[in-house]
Amino acid sequence: MFSQNSENEEQDTFKHLNKPVKKSTSVKIDSSRFNLHDIERPILTEKDLREQYSFEKLESNDALKSTINYLSKYYSPNRDCFLTFFLERVPFFKWILEYQIKDNLLKDVIAGLTIGIVHIPQGMAYSIMAGLPAVYGLYVSFFPVLIYVFLGTSRHLSIGSFAITSLMTFSCIERLEGKYYPVIDSNEFDSVTSPIEFNQTTSIPFEMSTSTMNPEFLSNDPVEAKIQISMCITFMTGLIQIIFGILHGGFVTKFLSDVIVTGFTTGAAIHIILSQVNTLLGISTGKVTIPFKIIGNLIEIFKNIHHTNLATFIVGLVSIVIFVLVRELINEKYKQKLIMPVPIELILVIFGTLFAYLFDFHDKWKIKIVGDIPRGIPTPSLPPFKIVPDIIGESISIAIVSYALNFSMAKVFSKKYNYELASNQEAFAYGMGNLVTSLFKGFPACVALSRSAILDGVGGKTQVYGLVSSVLMLIVCLALGPFFKTLPNAVLAAIIVVALKNMLLQITQFPEIFRRSKFEALAWSITFLGVVTFDVDIGLYIGVSVTLMLVIFRSQRPRMTVLGNIEFTDIYESIEICKEAKELPEIKILRFEESIYYANVDNFKYKVMKYSKIDVNETLKKIHAEKTEYAQVLNEQEIIKRRIQILMENKGIDNLAYANQEEMDKDLKAVKENVESHLTQIRTALPIKHIILDCSCINNIDTQGVNAFVQLYELYKEIGVQLHFTFCKPCILKMFSKTKLDQRLDYEFIYPTTHDAVLHICHRKTSRKNTPNTRKKSVEQISIEDNILV
């Protein structure tokens, strides 16, 4: 099968690997050649490895058993289980016992006061953005923050009101106008900014308390109806997040990669800024019903821009200029020297409220103001669950987006300060915060990127800052709220616009994303354009869909790498990227760099055949032609023999001249030898005799993937090429066992490492050459009789 020259060449080529040895002997690695420590061990197959060393039995994971173990650990009716469950769900009692008062308390108090001060204007601003009275933003800045102190695991997350969740809530509320509350004429009534007399007990308008409900609406008062819709959205958002936490469903947000989140938030920032233009100009615009909301809003703005209130515009412009100057020239420039940043948001709110009161902005200049803010906390109540079918889609979107934003920011700080997060407990904490907030007429809470950055900048150390912030917000709700009655809405709009500067500037990251990965740049672009072109929720669905399609596309078309051996080592690297890596004669080493499942199994088989450099179909045609010829001759001989036998029986003839059995057997043997010779020539002519599949990158495999292994194994076996498998992970071996592949696939050709496979092949070649007369039937020469009917 091998010529003398080829034998010498092979010996020279393979000698750097190691001397061929029997499986039962040790392999002595020459350290001078391998540049490694001396290693002695036998050449091992996977079967040898598991027989000689202690391996657990390969069993598939029992989902039911795992569930029972989890339930018994956390939900068994005993004291230890209850204590474990309680500490898992309320981690406050874990870390508070280790709290370092001397090192952390002062920093946490300063951070809490700073964040509380920022919460006041942002809470009111984002509440108005959500289509609700300003006071409800104060509740969102109190309840979720307090609950997160006890349930959260991040030390630097500022939960509360945020622009994106407010915008998504407003979009849902606006969509239900006319179905659950009367259509509002923006030229006659402003449901948010008009001063409304509130009932001190219920925090709803007096006119609502005495009005007759229209059965078609949640309320005849649009403000109250919007509050109830917001309550239901918040309740369902919290419930979904709690379910995520309990059922370990946080994996859903993994489809929102950092690139998708960046594209989504950048597009949302444009929507948010555009939504504040009306307030900054003091104009009212009609409701946009077309899918392209930004275009529709721009059209409405330019249609009404001649109604601009100059006084409102000046107030907004001055607020923006002052905010930017203080933020960029003082807070950013001197942040290392300042104990805490200048609370410019609160300063603008205080002076804006004061000037509006002294100069009567609302009556004299028609500048819209916040209006009455009632003292106290509203009485808890349940949301109207009958509207759940109409808001469940938005609730799921808000739950996923807020969790993704929250946890992404939490991971940034956990890596920076080296502490652990509990992803499922985080989802539970966010959900409980939203659930409780919904009972007090709040809207969905989320992390605010700017507040979290401020919290980190002022040196906040633990969740204790949240207690301080909550106390400050409680004081505002119980006593100070009414003092903000005359605060101009334009000041709050200015705060929102400037706060979103960094989010909008994320667009400058696109060139770097494009340079790093074209796929990620495509996902970013489509998500961003989807949000900008259509709407926030539609853009989110587009982004998730794009992510899924890219995942499927990548997994369907993975790389197949050809590996070569680096001389004098047991290292095998890609021959494309490593010049020292050389292919071995008659051996092709391939690495498939993806899990194998039904969507890419055809691509896997195609690439194995392509990179093996063997025309399998043409070779099979030649082999089948030879076998068919032999089968025809054999069949003809059998027919002749049968006819002779019948003739002899019928005529009673014992001896016929042409019925010489020995002659027929001799002819048949000659034909058989000729066919075998041709088959040997066909197989010997193949450039590759062994294919090694490096499975180190295959993390999962399904039934179709296993079947592909079998098909390739048997296909190559028929043409005289042996398929070997290396680095098979437990998941692959489990599938082999579950699908009974171990009964069809010889475990002799599964190895723990690629080097074991190569050494074993070298040993087999040498053994065959040294004992030509006693060579057993090999996989390269399949018996005619074994395959004659294939």
TrEMBL record:
The keyword Iron does not apply. It comes from the Eukaryota. Residues 577-761 form the STAS domain. GO terms for biological process: transmembrane transport. CDD domains: STAS_SulP_like_sulfate_transporter. PROSITE patterns: STAS. Keywords: Membrane, Transmembrane, Transmembrane helix. It is a multi-pass membrane protein. One of its GO terms (cellular component) is membrane. It is found in: Membrane. The chain crosses the membrane at residues 134-151, 227-247, 259-283, 304-326, 338-359, 464-484, 490-510, 522-553. This is STAS domain-containing protein.
